[in-house]
Amino acid sequence: MENLLDKINKALNGLSKRQRLIADFITNHYDKAAYMTASKLGENVGVSESTVVRFATEIGYEGYPELQKAMQEMIRDKLTSVQRIDVASDRIDYENVLSSVLNQDIKLIKKTMEENNNESFERAVDSIVNARRIYIFAVKSSFALARFLGYYFELIFGNVKLIETTSKTQMYEQLFRIDTRDVMIGISFPRYSSSTMEAMQFASQQGAHVIAITDSMTAPATKIADCVLIAKSDMASVVDSIVAPMSLINALIVATVERKRDEVTQTFKKLESIWDRYDLYIKNGESRTDEQ
After folding, report:
1. Domain limits for position 49
2. In total, how many domains does the chain have?
């Protein structure tokens, strides 16, 4: 919070009476203010939308969207689950939850497209394709992303180490062989895990190439990683939205398959043969039960 509060404090003497009301509201209720539109914030404070916009520029931002982004990046990893429920009540139309949540996810994918660049993405793909071993680490809801990525990378490369523990002893035991020939993919979204940062830091110290998949260039993982891929996440009540991160991971998988097309084709030919031999999937027109 220091950066935003510093801006407000430095500008405080020059603010109008109405702008000071906005400053007080943000200071005392930043967890809710961060997800309000300029109009909604003005309504809560008792000022016009244009006053809110002028306040943003007065304290040093180009406009309200930049101020809102600064608030969101500063508080998202600090919100407790209870606070998330309170914030969600101001953001989600509970009379039409489905479209409300889906539209939020659509916006996150669009923001992800805007904030990534092909150069970083291609560098990440290069390091993954050329690695001796691929280490993947994440915890909490981000672990679902790590498992999905690990599943496909294991099929494609066969050299994947998915770290499935938050125990520090076991984490270092699974990482101690990592070296300059390897790559570490750390997946970290608010609320940021200290375990993920420690694993990435250890990998970096051992000389491995470190890739961070995170939500912002201000996230802790960016200070450690050699390559950063941004995927915008958000919260819908107590649920972490991982739609955009999953889409980014899908792109990583597709790109690596293309780089290793011949090898992957042979791999999946063998797999299809095994799946067919052991009736892993139901064939068209068949209806099977567990007893059959």
Report:
1. 2-78
2. 2
What is d(CA 21, CA 41) in angstroms, rounded to the nearest whole number?
11
State the CATH number of the domain containing residue 16.
1.10.10.10
Same domain, 71 and 146: no
Which has the closest alpha carbon to 103: 250, 214, 241, 248? 241
- Nearest CA to 228 out of 262, 195, 185, 291 is that of 185
Give the integer Cα–Cα distance in Å for 64 and 152: 41
Same domain for 173 and 35: no
Alpha-carbon gap, residue 107 to 101, rounded angstroms: 10
**Which stretches of 139-200 are assigned E, i.e. beta strand?**
160-163, 183-188
Q: Is residue 49 domain-resident? A: yes
The burial class, CB within 10 Å (0-12 / 13-18 / 19+), for 277 is exposed
Co-location of 49 and 143 in the same domain = no
pLDDT in tens, 116-173: 888 999 999 999 999 999 999 999 889 999 999 999 999 999 999 999 887 889 999 9
86 DSSP β-pair partners: none
Cis peptide bond upstream of 191, omega within 30: yes
**pTM greater than 0.90:** no
The average pLDDT across 29-39 equals 83
Mean pLDDT of the chain: 87
Closest listed residue to residue 175, CA positions, set 207, 213, 220, 211:
207
Contact by Cβ (8 Å): 261, 158: no
Predicted confidence (pLDDT) per residue in 204-253, tens digit: 999 999 999 998 887 889 999 999 999 988 765 557 788 999 999 999 99
